[in-house]
Amino acid sequence: MNSGKPSLKSGPGSAARIIVFGVVQGVGFRPFIFRLARRFGYKGWVKNIGSGVEIHVESPEPADFGAFLEAIQDEKPPLARIERITSKRAAFLGLSDFEVQKTQAGESFVFISPDISVCRNCLREMKDPKDRRFRYPFINCTDCGPRYTIVKALPYDRPQTTMAGFKMCSPCAAEYHDPSDRRYHAQPIACPTCGPRVTLRQARTGKEIAGGIPRAADLIKKGKILAVKGLGGFHLVCDPLAPKAVSRLRKIKDRRTKPLALMARDLETLAKYVYCSPEEKKLLLSPFRPIVLLKKKNDIPGIAPHLDEIGIMLPYAPLHDLLLEDIPLIVATSSNQKDSPIMKDEQEGIGHLCDYILSHNRPIQMRADDSVIKEVRSTPLFVRRARGYVPYPQKVPPQLESSCHILALGGELKDTISIYKNGYVVTSQFLGDLDEYQNHLYFEETVRHLGRLFEVKPSCVVSDLHPDFHTTRYAQTLGIPHLQVQHHYAHVLAVLLEHSLPPKTKVLGVAWDGYGYGQDGTAWGGEFLLGDMHGFERFAHFQYIPLPGGDLAAKQPWRMALAYLHKMGPGMLQKSSLLDDIDPKKIRAVLAMLEKGIQSPLSSSCGRLFDAVSALSGLAPPENEFEAEAAMRLEAAATSRTGAVYPYQIDGGKTALQISFMETIGTIIKDRERGTEPSVIATKFHNSLAGIILDVAGRAKNSCGITTIVLSGGVFLNKKLLVRVLSLLEEEDFLVLRPVNYSPNDESLSLGQIGYALARLKPGEFLSA
Ligand SMILES: [Zn+2]
Ligand SMILES: [Zn+2]
Asked: How far is it, in rounded angstroms, from Cα 310 to Cα 258?
């Protein structure tokens, strides 16, 4: 950050050379400096340089540039992130104007801004009957509008965006070329005369019907299902208070229980249904406009069954603001059929999913789902990072900088890719489960697109250790050096990179999730890794339990309950009667499978422990419709205030400590038989897991002097567990790091993989720091 109050000595005809470091390119920074200089009456120029922006300012009068420097900090564009400002006196040149200099090709790593919600100034104009963009749904300016989803290539200029086909009218062109206008170089600039237009069509016939946006709102109110084209793709929209429409939408999407996101006109509307803290309000209102998961107040049946939170967002495209004028609350769920990416064109078959289509003719270049966030102790916790946040770059610690370009491909479920160039990592939007063919195409489309956009020529590629992942096989086809990283280690590395921890700082990484390929070929998942950027050892892990039926064990939580009962010994098998909604024939078949050890690979999974406990508490569905459903129901149930815990056991294994849950499960069963409330069982279980982390952290501190704990892996999307762990560890003075700008789930693997490669490049390949 800027140290102290910058100020320069004044004199007749003073001038200064200012360099601003950080994320200041592609975020409207140069036009901002231009307007600022004009306001101060300064002459000079501004241009992009390798690591930031360079400014020459001068004043014919004696001047103190301190106020100018402060204004840069205070008024910077919403997306700019300033790391440091340097300033020194420069020769007075007697310039007559202030100009924005063009970026030369290849001069620097040019960033592209994420898509930004419509700003206040544009909204005001849109609602002003005298404005020429009155009620125009594609209004935007230098501070707002589509970016990442419309860029085809760099430099970021109109002909390289999907706006290329729209010829600016002369009033738009005048604004575009006027450096003092707030639409100076706003590439998607448009108006009703020259820009994109909205159409409303019947889905079945494709016939255009009159009435536009107000008619669309009317159709939603009448119980129809609409596809609405936004920034990164189509939403499927209906009235959340119309149960028939909601259940039809669920049928179309083939989702019985998976939560549906809502969009509310404003904070007053959503306050009727959910609780919302000041921090959550800030997230909802931020220019990135994520879906925020909020605690239910008055439940709307059918929107998020069995869970205690609902995901809600505020309008982000001007089109949404106009649509919600007439209906205050809509379901706005991404328009994909099960296991496919969000649709971006009518040609992809959107007409089969709805009654009407509210579309427009500004093409989407890159799809992006809505981002999903929870707020945990005033800090975001990303459930999904996509629209609004991608492709915001991550700076790497200077010791790790390299002149090589790197491509990292992530894992398989909830995949992202990352690229590294010139000290920055860009991580893609959430791409989904690559085992699905359509998602795999989306993955390849994104690898090509980001590579081209940022002009990355990777000298190595990084993937997961899993030999059968699509990403691993894809890496093998590229014909460049290929590194593979253990899954849970990549989780820990992502956090080390994000928090710029010095590469030799040793931490205890608590990496808990469903499944990742282990170094011994088994399925790891409840891991404590001791290490730094350069290597790790397995310090402790959950005891291995068979997964009866392999992948099926992750879908049917009761299978894991049986696996634990079987492991606890023959005397426990009669307790399978607790799984009273499961066909006894199926139970016998799975028990036989466990007995013979067939199709039962071993795993130390934490996710599967949650499944077992959720099933034995009577909370899990017979089959998960979506990943972690049983675990999320267990979390939702944990509402008791009890501080009680269940017993567990930690034994010194050959190489690492082993944590056994036999006693935990045994006591949970006793509680259940005693008629203990599920809320108490669920809370005690969460307390126990937090206690285990504190216990193992204490052992790592005693044996190796560890004081920094990293929490990552999909299990840490569990807010109740996370909050409990944070307070226990901080009470004992541990420094606790967790992902803040990335999701703790497998979306962060590709970022960690970049860290792995950077820490292993030969010294000759390092740039001088
Ligand atoms: Zn604007
Ligand atoms: Zn125009």
From this structure: 11
pTM for this prediction: 0.92
Closest to 163 in 3D by CA, of 174, 151, 172, 145:
151
- DSSP lists the bridge partners of residue 541 as 527, 658
CB 660 within 8 A of CB 649: yes
Radius of gyration over alpha carbons of the chain, in Å?
Answer: 27
Instruction: Compute, in angstroms, the gap from residue 186 CA to the centroid of ligand 2.
Output: 12
Question: What's the pLDDT at 129?
Answer: 98
Which of the ligands is closest to the CA of residue 124?
1
Contact 396, 497 (CB under 8 A): yes
Residue 473: helix, strand or coil by DSSP?
Answer: helix
Instruction: Tell me how far the alpha carbon of residue 39 lies from the centroid of ligand 2, in angstroms.
Output: 27
User: Which tokens in the block code for residue 76?
Assistant: 């910077």
Half-sphere exposure of 482 (CA within 13 A, CB side): 16
Q: What pLDDT digit, counting tens, does each position of 216-253 carry?
A: 999 999 999 999 999 999 999 999 999 999 999 999 98
CA proximity to 185, closest of 288, 31, 35, 308: 31
CA distance 439 to 367: 12
738 within 8 A of 494, measured Cβ to Cβ: no
Q: Average pLDDT of the chain?
A: 92
Residue for token pair 């062109």? 173
Q: Which of 195, 128, 114, 188 is nearest to 158 (CA)?
A: 188
Longest dimension (CA), the chain: 93
Which residue(s) pair with 761 in the sheet? none
Ligand 2 centre distance from Cα of residue 173 (Å)? 7
3-state SS record for 589-655: HHHHHHHHCCCCCEECCCHHHHHHHHHHCCCCCCCCCCCCHHHHHHHHHCCCCCCCCCCCEEEECCC
Contact criterion met (CB below 8 Å) for 327 and 220: yes
Quote the CA–CA distance of 267 and 762 in Å, as a whole number.
Answer: 53
User: How far apart are alpha carbons 118 and 310 in whole angstroms?
Assistant: 24
Which residues, including other chains, have CB under 8 Å from residue 686's CB and lie 6 or more apart?
Answer: 635, 638, 718, 720, 721, 724
DSSP letter, residue 357 = E
Q: Alpha-carbon distance 602 to 599, whole Å?
A: 10
Burial per residue of 669-686, b for 16 or more beta-carbon CB atoms within 10 angstroms, e otherwise: bebbeeeeebbbbbbbbb
Q: How many CB atoms lie within 10 A of CB 151?
A: 23
Q: Name which of 29, 27, 28, 61 is nearest 43 in CA terms.
A: 61
- pLDDT tens readout for residues 94-153: 999 999 887 765 555 667 889 999 999 999 999 999 999 999 999 999 889 999 999 998
Q: How many CB atoms lie within 10 A of CB 642?
A: 13
Q: Beta strand 460-464 with 406-408: parallel, antiparallel or unpaired?
A: parallel
Sheet order of strands, 14-23 included: 81-89, 14-23, 52-59, 43-49, 98-100
- Tell me the ligand closest to 145's alpha carbon: 1
The arithmetic mean of pLDDT across residues 321-326, rounded, is 97
Distance 77 CA to ligand 1 centre (A): 12
Ligand 2: distance of its center to the CA of 196 in Å? 10
Task: Tell me the C-alpha distance between 454 and 689, whole Å.
Answer: 43
Strand, coil or helix: 441: helix
- C-alpha to C-alpha distance for 539 and 530, rounded to whole angstroms: 6
Which residue's entry shows tokens 């390299």? 402
- Ligand index nearest the alpha carbon of residue 171: 2
Give me the phi and psi of 109, to 5 degrees please: -85, 105
Q: How far apart are CA 722 and CA 736, in angstroms?
A: 11
| CB neighbour class for 492 (10 Å; exposed up to 12, middle 13-18, buried from 19) | buried
